[in-house]
Write a structure and sequence with these properties.
- Residues 42-53 have a biased composition (Polar residues).
- It is found in: Membrane.
- InterPro entries: PAP-like (IPR043216), PAP2/HPO (IPR000326), PAP2/HPO_sf (IPR036938).
- This is Phosphatidic acid phosphatase type 2/haloperoxidase domain-containing protein.
- The chain is mostly helical.
- It is 61% helix and 1% strand.
- It contains 13 helices and two strands, in the order H-H-E-H-H-H-H-E-H-H-H-H-H-H-H.
- It has a two-stranded antiparallel ribbon with strand order 1-2.
- The longest helix has 42 residues, at 59-100.
- Mean pLDDT is 74; it is low at 24-32 and 35-51.
Length: 350
């Protein structure tokens, strides 16, 4: 008898705990959290509700037809929404493929001033944040893990999950496309360029002794005077091109997008519900991509202008994509996916 009571106690305790957890996880997906539209229901009774005797042999055919239509609609929806992931990923893969294959021509490199002090810094031996660490930790691991944990614990809404995840993918794709465009069109040089170039002074002196006044005595291209010109054809543009900073632009875009997401869910911009500590925490966490930019300047990987442009690209990408996916950026409805506004205006169909 005692054993039976103990088993029953743990059984009831487990059932109650499960109900409490479900209530906790879903407490923010109640009808008053997002803008929700009640489903249209046809409560009227028509003659079609009663199956005539001459149609009793057709229920199976009707059921099969309904299942077929439902299957087609589901496949159409899957294709429609999967393209939101596939197309940005293909664009991102194309950009990275072109960069890694050395597809940037030499003529995109600008002339440089042989006595430019901003390009004459010594080479820094230690890289605080290598490329793999920035990509793996600050762009993928920390943002995605934080988002998944937050969503599973507090939101648990499939529509919101889709908007946030596809927004993350599109933010990265847009940011890298703009950054790669800067590498392709301008390229730019890093502060340690002249040390790595090691100009051939014999060629430089020949230009200076030339009697042709039209020749640029002090301005050259890397392929003209560098000791190893093949290293400056941007065959490895991810490591060579300096304008803009890819480290800073990628980290800023991802962190700003997810910080806007968290701030919206916490009602940070709602002056009736929000508290200033949320705003303070928002800008405090936003210092992480700024810190990444500072490390690029300190280690002489980029100039200040290259880092600033990278920050601006990241901010632009995050704001554009977030506004495209959510109702506002700094409004009281910043937490609401646009899906619910579309539902209010018309049925959500692809």
């Amino acid at each position: 008898m005692t054993t039976h009571k103990i088993k029953q106690f743990f059984k009831d305790f487990g059932k109650q705990s499960k109900e409490n957890l479900v209530s906790l996880f879903r407490r923010k997906t109640r009808d008053n959290y997002f803008i929700t539209i009640p489903h249209e229901q046809n409560t009227s009774t028509t003659s079609s509700d009663t199956i005539p005797s001459n149609e009793l042999g057709k229920p199976l055919q009707k059921e099969l037809s309904q299942k077929s239509e439902k299957r087609k609609r589901v496949m159409k929806l899957i294709l429609y929404y999967s393209l939101e992931y596939i197309i940005p990923l293909l664009c991102l893969g194309l950009v990275l493929g072109v960069l890694l294959s050395g597809g940037i021509p030499t003529f995109s490199l600008p002339y440089f001033y042989i006595e430019d002090p901003t390009l004459s810094y010594p080479k820094h031996q230690h890289d605080i944040l290598p490329l793999w660490e920035v990509a793996a930790i600050y762009v993928l691991l920390i943002p995605l893990v934080s988002f998944l944990l937050f969503h599973l614990l507090f939101i648990r809404n499939l529509v919101d999950f889709h908007h946030a995840l596809v927004g993350y993918v599109q933010t990265i794709a847009l940011c890298m496309a703009i950054t790669a465009f800067g590498w392709l069109v301008y390229g730019g040089y890093r502060p340690t360029f002249l040390v790595e170039c090691n100009p051939n002074m014999k060629v430089v002196n020949e230009h200076r002794k030339s009697g042709n006044t039209l020749l640029p005595y002090r301005y050259f291209k890397p392929t003209d005077v560098c000791q190893n010109p093949e290293n400056f054809r941007l065959s490895s543009p991810l490591m060579t091109s300096g304008f803009p900073s890819g480290h800073v632009s990628s980290v800023m875009s991802v962190w700003l997008f997810f910080l806007l997401y968290f701030a919206g869910k916490a009602d940070t911009w709602n002056r009736r519900k929000g508290q200033f500590w949320k705003v303070f925490l928002f800008f405090l966490l936003l210092l992480v991509p700024v810190w990444v930019g500072v490390t690029r300047i300190v280690t002489l990987k980029h100039t200040i202008s290259q880092v600033v442009v990278g920050i601006l690209i990241g901010i632009f990408s995050a704001l554009l994509v977030y506004r495209y996916k959510y109702c506002s950026i700094f409004g009281v409805d910043a937490k609401t996916p646009n899906y619910y506004m579309w539902q209010k205006q018309q049925p959500s169909t692809p």
